[in-house]
Design brief:
Blueprint lengths: L2 H25 L5 H4 L9 H14 L1 H4 L21 H6 L2 H10 L13 H16 L1
The protein binds heme C.
Heme C (HEC) binds next to helix 3, helix 4, helix 5 and helix 6.
Amino acid sequence: MSRPGVFTVALSLMLLFWGLARVAIATHWTAPPEAKRLTNPVRATEASVKKGRELYMWHCAKCHGVRGLGDGPSVGSLRVQAGLNLTLLGRETDGELFWKISYGRGEMPPFELILKPEDRWHIVNFLRTLHSR
Ligand code: HEC
């Protein structure tokens, strides 16, 4: 292999790692501190969880799958994995989940304009039952 060849390979590798590092940073999605402090005004009653489940099946399951595994029928068209990491969800406050559902990121649509706040909280209550299963 000629010297310029080695140089090209080294440069390509550097660019590749730089690209991977950027993707790794991009996949970590953190809600802002003020989201953490939002309190859930909707009690997680059986009725709320039921309502949340209905809304989830209608609006979210096509990407996240009925059990949050990221295996819904629309995932084929997504570039980003849509599995809900239940361990991660368990570490987040209701406010953080509410914030992510409201504003979205990339291929995750913002539901602020689609669902009223109360409905977004019902969904948060339902997501908690996914976690405990
Ligand atoms: C069009 C596909 C799509 C739909 C519909 C969708 N999501 Fe997402 N969702 C995603 C993708 C992709 C990500 C990962 C986004 C990222 O990390 O950039 C995501 C991320 C999330 C996260 C953050 C996960 C974490 O651990 O940080 C939550 C919570 C979430 N979605 C909940 C919902 C809820 C609730 C609904 C329905 C109201 C919904 N999503 C609808 C594609 C979707």
